[in-house]
UniProtKB/TrEMBL annotation:
Residues annotated as transmembrane: none
Name by which UniProt lists this protein: HIT family protein
Organism expressing this protein natively: Agaricicola taiwanensis
UniProt cross-references to SUPFAM superfamilies, sorted A to Z: HIT-like
Segments for region (Disordered): 133-172
Domain HIT: 38-106
Record GO terms (molecular function): catalytic activity
Amino acid sequence: MLKSTIEIDRRLAADTVYVSTLALSQVRLMDDARFPWVVLVPKSQATELTDLSPLERGALMEEIATVSHVLGTTVSVDKINVGALGNIVSQLHVHVVGRRHGDAAWPGPVWGSGEAEKYEPTARDALVNKLAEALNGPAEPRGLSAEPTDDQASTDTILDTEPPAADGTIER
């Protein structure tokens, strides 16, 4: 069942920056400049795709397709990877990752591939604004502190539902 707020796991919130809110999901940019990478977080307490209703699953697939298209046309990539793991952060979230031949993890998966390299703030904010504009149309430029406003019908609540891994890693 969809909720009016999106409760974001604290690890997802710590590793990402708000981009936009779609009908079903919040879109967040992974703060790792090595890969153009966004995460969709549905407005649900779901942990598995099968926890969503058939209508919600269909809506999520459409949002994945939309975000994949926007990512692929906003930045230069050779391939789009889509994945939903949930082994560390059980809250349902879907990764949409732009890949380039020869990137830091090519041809393997991005998960567990080296240390994240945070974006420079101006580069991060520029990408966030480009993605948000492509998803929603022109809007006011936003910085790191930009989060959904009251008129976006969604707020974040940080969840602390699982302890960090013993080695301190965070699922990406």
